[in-house]
Design brief:
homodimer; 8-stranded parallel β-barrel; 12 helices; 8 strands
Chain lengths: 314, 314
């Protein structure tokens, strides 16, 4: 089935969502979530970030989760890393892919990882050096993520030229993928089309390009449509929209995986995902979350259309 | 300002929204809502439907509302009509525009107005005859609305060919506008692009074409993007997404006006609407609604981006 996917959707809620949750999400529920989402046909799951346990205690069980994920046939297990130290842990554990992320916004990067964007690029260089030191790590992909690429709560508008420059630098270092992220939900469909069109024209011949949208201001799926129109076929999302924004407490987080899959499948695009199985995973996640963390999602609320729409032709 | 609008957004919550509300919305609050939304720059408001008071008691104050609306300079006051009897009332009151609506789904039309789609077209013919009888009515526009045009809870998929046939028949009768509606929230961006592209190719040279989307399954704004890409520039929406769907009790209603305006303006498209003034109208509406009728909206929940994004160039 995976050979026939038109669109790759990647679960990031286990990382981008859970990192926001103060209560520890039980390892057992995480393991069931992982297995269930792989069973539903999700091809890639970002399972954690490799950061010190005292910074994000939520990922203290990362070794167990990674190990379990790697046993699931066909699943790509990825993890976020901000620096070489985190990457070293990822290499040791043998994840399939490391997602290195920096911010296009200098101010945001300084706040988030305490160094300039240029210094972050230096860290990415160190990560590649580390990978190249050990032939056992050769098969581990490194993706370059550019956060706040479509706007920043601190800097406002971000110049697309700067985003392209960062992508170019990442490409020179050897990333297999460029991920462009609207970290704080500032994007709009016109900007998305513009930035992703530029990125596709410049880089699509060399690397995969993926999109990471937040639904903070309700434009998440509209932005997906704009990115699709720009030729993008890989999207991050999270179950139930898990993952708020620390700068907008009442705002929803990542785009909702169930709604994304529903939209894509209704559009006649094959995601390889079984939507009913996917929706049923909300129960597992709800079971592991404190009551103060609601899950979002229009499809879960409204239900699938009935009678089922016949297959679209053409 | 209205001369420079790129996009026309039309408020339908006062009709499509309130018709779903069982408690009578106070006339006084309706009048304040009307004035405030016109002040915010909304160019057209559908204020009621002309149906017997015993069918929809909510519109018992229609004469007062229409009269007040017609006094507001520059505002287009429209109303929905299902038949010649309703249209006669509209002509008498001198509304600016009558929106005649039938369903593309034969089953839905039979349930809703107890006649076939063909018979509904006959009613539209009667409405034009009525208008032509009296020179005083010559300036009143008649728009042709096609509901369930993108899917039906009873029939499922609707053949776009049928939608084009209805539009063609309406055009022959003399409508100034074709409104294509996703009444039950079954549309997806691919279908929207397909149907509106066909409609634009066939009819845009002769009439205005507008889109009416519901956000039942979260795809409302994504569908707007698809319609924009097909060249559509007129959209219905309702304040706070007022207007549920009787077939999906937990579902939200029309696309949210505030979110639509936010998206369009962020895209660099001028709606002529002051977003902050618009958002403040939610208070008036909340004050007139029973507590069981929540307003929706991502912008009202998350707030506008801060710092304010600088104007987009190009």
């Amino acid at each position: 089935m995976s050979n026939q996917r038109d669109i790759i959707v990647r679960e990031v809620g286990m990382r981008d969502g859970l990192q926001m949750v103060k209560d520890i999400f039980p390892t057992d529920a995480k393991l069931r979530w992982l297995q269930a989402e792989a069973d539903a046909g999700i091809p890639e799951i970002e399972v954690c970030s490799f950061v010190p346990v005292h910074v994000v205690p939520q990922f203290q069980d990362h070794a167990e989760i990674v190990e379990a994920g790697l046993k699931i046939p066909g699943l790509t297990v990825s993890a976020l890393v901000p620096n070489a130290r985190g990457a070293a842990r990822g290499f040791e554990l043998g994840v399939d892919k490391l997602n290195f992320v920096l911010s296009a916004s200098e101010t945001h990067n300084l706040k988030n990882v305490r160094c300039t964007t240029e210094e972050s690029l230096g860290r990415l260089k160190d990560i590649f050096a580390l990978r190249n030191e050990n032939p056992a790590y050769a098969g581990i992909d490194i993706a370059g993520g550019i956060s706040t690429a479509l706007g920043c709560t601190m800097e406002g508008k971000i110049d697309p030229t700067r985003v392209m420059w960062i992508a170019e630098e990442m490409l020179k270092l050897g990333v297999s993928e460029i991920m462009i992220a609207d970290t704080v939900g500032y994007a709009n469909p016109a900007l998305v089309h513009d930035v992703f069109r530029q990125a596709a024209d410049l880089f699509a011949k060399d690397v995969r390009i993926s999109a990471h949208f937040h639904d903070t201001r309700g434009l998440g799926l509209a932005n997906v449509v704009a990115a699709l129109n720009a030729g993008i076929t890989e999207f991050d999302a999270s179950m139930g929209g898990l993952g708020g924004c620390p700068f907008a407490p009442a705002a929803t987080g990542n785009i909702v995986m169930e709604d994304l899959v529903f939209m894509l499948e209704e559009m006649g695009l094959n995601t390889g995902v079984n939507l009913e199985k996917l929706i049923s995973i909300r129960e597992i996640i709800n079971g592991g979350l404190p009551e103060s963390e609601p899950l979002y999602g229009a499809i879960a609320r409204a239900g699938l259309p009935k009678p089922k729409m016949p297959e679209m032709t053409g």
